[in-house]
Amino acid sequence: NAGVTQTPKFQVLKTGQSMTLQCAQDMNHEYMSWYRQDPGMGLRLIHYSVGAGITDQGEVPNGYNVSRSTTEDFPLRLLSAAPSQTSVYFCASSSGYNSPLHFGNGTRLTVT
Amino acid sequence: EDQVTQSPEALRLQEGESSSLNCSYTVSGLRGLFWYRQDPGKGPEFLFTLYSAGEEKEKERLKATLTKKESFLHITAPKPEDSATYLCAVQDSNYQLIWGAGTKLIIKP
């Protein structure tokens, strides 16, 4: 059981560069989401999706885009990286709104 | 404003020394309270969901309880492998999750 798979595990970007964080799940979950985790703070929701073709903004969406063309994949795009986007990013999926989240192991992103 | 506060920020215990972690919350219309465990370099792993005041859930050395204002995660006779960061999240009436900053638990052998 792979669960939720995130790639890459680590990434260093220069300010202004763009990149895509990949997320795939093999549990046939409709709900997927992206969080960022910063020291001393709770997880913050960036974007989420309730099914293929449907996405919506979370608490901190600025500077990020998402798309959901299949049930399995939910990539997160950084349009023009900024040092404030240095963080650990987690993708999660669940079978419903109030079901437990299954998390990937994260991508540690550093923007210089 | 919905808020979740976890205390303490860090807790160091000797192996076998029981204690409790606290998650206090203010939320409009609680739908559920979730506990997760996070190991270094890993994503959070689900432990429990509690839905109403008075509810209790147990798993091995862990027991979670819920009141109208807070939840406790009781750890009985912990072992070094229980060392992790424990996260609490509350789901409000709009199904939005509000996360606490976590408690880092260190169990010394």
Describe this entry's structure for a reader.
The complex is a heterodimer of chains A (112) and B (109). Chain A has strands at 4-7, 10-13, 19-25, 31-37, 44-51, 54-57, 64-66, 76-78, 87-94, 102-103, 107-111. With 112 residues, chain A is mainly beta. In chain A, strand 4 (31-37) and strand 5 (44-51) form a beta hairpin. The N and C termini of chain A lie far apart (36 Å). The model of chain A has no long low-confidence stretch (mean pLDDT 96). Chain B has 109 residues and is mainly beta. In chain B, 0% of the residues lie in helices and 58% in strands. Chain B is built from no helices and 11 strands. The A-B interface holds A 4, 40-45, 90, 92, 97-98, 100-106 and B 4, 31-32, 34, 36, 41-46, 49, 87, 89, 91, 95-102.
Tally of contiguous helical segments of chain A: 0
- Specify the biggest β-sheet of chain A: 7 strands, mixed
Largest interface: A-B, 18 and 23 residues
Beginning-to-end CA distance, first to last residue of chain A: 36 Å
How many β strands of chain A by DSSP? 11
The ordered H/E elements of chain B are: EEEEEEEEEEE
- Kindly name the structural category of chain A: mainly beta
Please render the helix and strand layout as text.
The complex is a heterodimer of chains A (112) and B (109).
Chain A: E1 4-7, E2 10-13, E3 19-25, E4 31-37, E5 44-51, E6 54-57, E7 64-66, E8 76-78, E9 87-94, E10 102-103, E11 107-111
Parallel strand pairs in A: 2-11
Antiparallel strand pairs in A: 1-3, 3-8, 4-5, 4-9, 5-6, 7-8, 9-10, 9-11
Chain B: E1 3-7, E2 10-14, E3 19-26, E4 32-38, E5 45-50, E6 56-59, E7 62-66, E8 70-75, E9 84-91, E10 97-99, E11 103-108
Parallel strand pairs in B: 2-11
Antiparallel strand pairs in B: 1-3, 3-8, 4-5, 4-9, 6-7, 7-8, 9-10, 9-11
